Amino acid sequence: MIISTGNEELDRRLGGIPFPSLILIEGDHGTGKSVISAQFAYGLLKAGKQGYIVTTERSTYGYLKQMREVQIDLIPFFLRDKLGIAPLNTSRFSWSSQIAKRLLYVLLNFLKRVRDFAIIDSLTVISTFSTEEDLMEFIKELRVLATLGKGIIITLHPIFPESLKSRITSEVDVYFKLSTATIGNRRIKIMEKIKISEGAIGSDTIAFDVNPSLGVNVVPLSFSRA
Question: Which key words tag this protein in UniProt (predicted)?
Fold first, then answer.
């Protein structure tokens, strides 16, 4: 099924969120990964789904506050126990491949108990210290969870060589690539649909910015991929 993002402008251009599915959102710092994944969470919650957001960059309070400041108010769902926030403080670990493997195992077991959906924002630090095979095994297990009816969304920085990225993207249903561009004097964000699940509709490239008053604001400009 296709579920609304909870943002009419974004729905018109994007076509909604495929559910269940495994979604990868990739982009550098400042390209809007956290905001887009939070917008997807908002849409899923509005549709009656329940889930968790695992944040490796913020506290529970910090995450909810930041999203509310850009008009994505997840607090009512959090207070009604429809949404859980699970902070994972990655700065506390002395990183090694064994620590990363253990965290992937713990994270996977946690995600198996999530009711409808889960968002990992972001998987970058753990992935950096994981072996290629450990990471791929984790991604394949997420693929299984999606097959069983869950929505799984992961955000990542573009840190992988093309060979590993190809292996990862072959396992996901949807792959969004985020970047930024300057049009005139305006800095905007670009979301490209590199891979989309069968039956989904919408534009291949979407331009947007994040407005404190309007939230995710689609920019009415036409872009085409090079």
Answer: ATP-binding, Cell projection, Cilium, Flagellum, Nucleotide-binding
The 8-class DSSP code of residue 90 comes to: G
Dist. CA 211–CA 188, nearest whole Å: 11
Task: Tell whether 223 is covered by a domain.
Answer: no
Residue 178 domain-assigned (yes or no): yes
Burial 158-184 (b: 16+ CB within 10 A, else e): eebeeeebeebbebbbbbbbbbeeeee
Tally of domains in the chain: 1
- Specify if 189 maps to a domain: no
* Orientation of helix 132-147 relative to helix 97-112, angle to 10°: 0
Range of the domain at 38: 2-182+194-218
pTM of the entire predicted model: 0.93
- At residue 201, the pLDDT reads 62
Give the tokens for residue 182.
């300057």
- Looking at the domain assignment, is residue 225 inside a domain? no
Q: Compute how many other C-beta atoms are within 10 angstroms of the C-beta atom of residue 28.
A: 12
Residue 55, H or E segment = strand 51-55
User: pLDDT tens across 2-56, in order?
Assistant: 999 999 999 998 889 999 999 999 999 999 999 999 999 999 999 999 999 999 9
Distance between CA 210 and CA 33 in Å, rounded?
11
Exposed (0-12), middle (13-18) or buried (19+): which is 47, by Cβ within 10 Å?
A: middle
